[in-house]
Amino acid sequence: MSSLSQSVQTSDVRQLGINPNHWYVVARCTEVTNKPVGVILWHQAIALYRDSTGKIHALEDRCPHRQVKLSHGQAIANELECAYHGWRFNSSGECTAVPYLAANQKLPNCQIRRYPVKEQDGFIWLFPGDAESAVEPMGLPEWEHLNYIASVAVINCQAHYSYLIENLMDMYHGHLHQDLQAWAAASLKDIDEDNHRVDAHYTAQSYYKIDKIWSISQLFFPALRKLHPEPLDVSYIYPHWQSTLGKDFKIYCLLCPVDETQTKAYLIHFTSLNAFWRLHKLPVWFRRFIKDSLFNAAKKLLDGLVVQDVEMIEEEQQAYLQNPQRRNYELNRALISVQKLMRSQVERLG
Ligand code: FES
Ligand SMILES: [Fe+2]
């Protein structure tokens, strides 16, 4: 490939790779039980499993014997056993046992890659980079906090991750969700940006105000909602996204880019109960009970938003594949900043 075509390729944001020196989210904690789970993070197949103490490990999802997926196998004590011939691998990725090894045979000297992995705030964070640097997972401080009710939706879209991030950073697309009443009349006021993040500050009209205990029912009954102005801040904190609408809502999108035309992500919505100061005086067990009983209260809304967004994002991807040279007309300068950040994160890898 000539250097010219190479530079054309990397400058096309729809072909960009990822910067692996960050923590990505590959699964929810509840998805990985004692059965291994296979996930894909940017072309890399990874097997997640829990050992007998409940600790999570991540190994390359490939048995070096015959190249089948290790995630078909089972966890035994601290090791992962391949389904096919029963070879076993420890959490460092070394082969530790072959069931039919003859007395005069040595264990094969094969090694598969292990990935640093952490469980934090309900999700499994994985570091696909070379050197585990000082960076920490972004984390969701509201996940355990008793004043926040969480709802989770999964996004699986056949599109490059840039389409998803641009959708999330462009609040003018509230137009698409009018029937779901998420927000209205967004207006971009200001942008802050550096090498790690883009913060776009909008004002918008919100339909929800959570100031009485029964106002949670606004999540279920549209007739109770009234439009009122609130600040709407959205941030691309590479490689993830977060947003706050007024004081009552916080949303995160945690990304697992699969390849150039596929992205998995988790959308986590938090409704704040901070306005109910009396609630804070109640016993912790009761507050925990409220938090747990209302888990996924906003899921229907989230799922509805995701269906609408994914339809648009996938159509953009298809249009790009059919006519990659066609240019968009972009009026939202937050999206220019977002593309700049995506490029610089990948280009700094050299
Ligand atoms: S392919 Fe895994 S043990 Fe044979
Ligand atoms: Fe949306």
- Count of the separate structural domains: 2
**CATH architectural grouping of the largest domain:** Alpha-Beta Complex
* pLDDT < 50 runs, ≥5 residues: 1-9
Under the CATH scheme, which class of the largest domain? Alpha Beta
Q: Tell me the overall shape.
A: globular
User: Structural class from helices and strands?
Assistant: alpha+beta
- Mean pLDDT rating: 90
Distance between the termini: 17 Å
Q: What percent of residues are in strands? A: 25-35%
Helix content: 10-25%
CATH superfamily of the largest domain: Naphthalene 1,2-dioxygenase Alpha Subunit, Chain A, domain 1
Bound molecules: FE2/S2 (inorganic) cluster, fe (ii) ion
Description:
The structure is a single chain. The protein is of the alpha+beta class and 350 residues long. The chain folds into 2 domains: 24-126, 3-layer Sandwich (Rieske Iron-sulfur Protein); 148-347, Naphthalene 1,2-dioxygenase Alpha Subunit, Chain A, domain 1. It is 19% helix and 32% strand. It has 5 helices and 18 strands. It has helices at residues 3-11, 161-169, 284-293, 299-322, 333-347; strands at 24-28, 37-41, 44-50, 56-60, 74-76, 79-81, 88-89, 95-97, 114-115, 117-120, 123-126, 148-157, 183-193, 197-206, 228-237, 240-245, 249-259, 262-272. The chain has a 7-stranded antiparallel β-sheet with strand order 12-18-17-16-15-14-13. Strands 2-3-4-9 form a 4-stranded antiparallel β-sheet, with no helix packed on it. Strand 6 (79-81) and strand 7 form a beta hairpin. Helix 2 (161-169) packs antiparallel against helix 5 (333-347). The chain is globular. 35% of the residues are buried. It binds FE2/S2 (inorganic) cluster (FES) and fe (ii) ion. FE2/S2 (inorganic) cluster binds at residues 63, 65-66, 68, 82, 84-87.
